[in-house]
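[job 4417] fold queue: 2 targets
>>> target A
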Amino acid sequence: MLAGRVFGSLAELDDAFIAWAPIRRRQVHRTHGEVIAVRAERDRVALAPLPDHPYAVTERHLRRVGKDCLVSFDAHLYSVPARRVRPGQLVELRITRAQVAIHAQDRRDGPATLLAVHDRATAKGSWMVDEAHGDGLPDGRSRSTTTTDPAPTKEADDTAGHRDEQATDSLSALLARTAAARVPVGRRPLAAYDLAAGLQTLGVT
């Protein structure tokens, strides 16, 4: 009824649709085989009320956990509990306008589980870190550190001297085996080069 028609205004289109709708509702739908008005009424009864809170639009991204139990997203870093993750583990970030929720997402972990929730960072390069998440990270107490070179020992001096002797002997042996090292080389005093360059003249006796 409406196909191929041209309408001069929106009001004219509305009037045509209102006149066409009752005709369409009395027809049998070719997909489900029921009268459209009857099926519409049954569908309306089955509709549930809208939820109290609006539907949250969420972005989902996969990331890897770093060795410092931090996850990078959009130039920001977000922490996860060190004792619940391992370096390189795959996690899923569920991003809303206000929050970043991080879930474990690994076949070995079974279903996705919530690891951490942070406010979404706004300033570039922000670190959204929960200090409690660092529990379990190495703190350096198990390793000794020094700020100066250790004092040399007699054994170290002897070893270094032995290495120098070996290097000298190895170089001599290498030169002895090289054919170029056995080519005779002429030797002349440096004054001969000055004479050739005109910097010195032969004395006349």
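>>> target B
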Amino acid sequence: MFRRKWSALPADPAFPSDLKKLGYFINDKDEIRSIENPDYYFKYFISRNERYNERQRFAFNQAIEEEIHTRLTALGLRKILLPLGTTDPRQPHVPIFASRDMGADMDTASRVQDPQGPPSRVVVIFGETAQDLGVIAHRVIGGPGGINQGSMVSVVSALLQQRASATDAQPPGIILANTGQLLWWEPPKHNHLSGQDQDQKQDQDQKQDQVQLQKQEARAMTRVGFDSAPMRSAVHEGVLVDLDVAGGGGKNRVPGNGDIAEHVRYVFETVVPALVPAGAKLDVVAVGDAADAVERYFDWGATWARWRDRIACFANVGGYYPSWEIKCEGFRRFLREVSCPFFLTL
């Protein structure tokens, strides 16, 4: 009888989520360059085995995401876990960023220390579903332009230089939604290193290093990140996505944020009422397929009646929602008279 042990399977490639350990550094132009040759940017193709390329990019993107989040925090934003009230990061959640001082959830001491009060305008930004939280374009982050220009760091920095309104000198509040990382990923419970093989020839120190690299904490991911996440071995077919839409559960589903439509609804109907003062106007910016999701959400009579007096601006960046499919006449009039469409050029 033939028996294949877990320890006999080839290990899934593992790379540290650290720019320096990956062989890169951030130069004085805020661009990521190779330590070995500073004239070169990120190199994706390091192997003929595509799995090695994917796993290296996964670690590279995680390192970039951590750097971006550090910079956003330094600009005064705070990370909030959805559903609201989630305190255990090991439980399924979707992270977003929001300004610290928008007023609706400030305690009494904070209100006393802030004589200006809450901002009169809040900018809500929905990025593309293919991007991690805070990322605009990896081709800019990992190439000419640099981290700030290719991420929400530049957008937030610009917004902080604005006035909330003609009568409100403080900058507007900011909410960065997360339409991309809506899949909850959990590390595999065992991998090829879990079995004990008395005949194995692998050095124990190398084995321990491999185990440490394979260790990942459960977290929310994009679809691309989910496919590139660690597997039990390098020869597994992939990671099964368990959403269990019919049953309302699934281990990879985040409650209330199972897809982009649910996330947009949750942001407007739960996050905004909890964080934004009732009198503040909303400027909504949506990119790509997120713009289509926002339009679908507003394109309903009862929904638009609830939000029409608070939406001051809707910037549609690269959306493709057909105008002839809009059913709500009030929302159609708003798009024609107030909204700002932007078309991307390559």
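[job 4417] complete. Note on B: The first strand starts at residue 24 and ends at 26.
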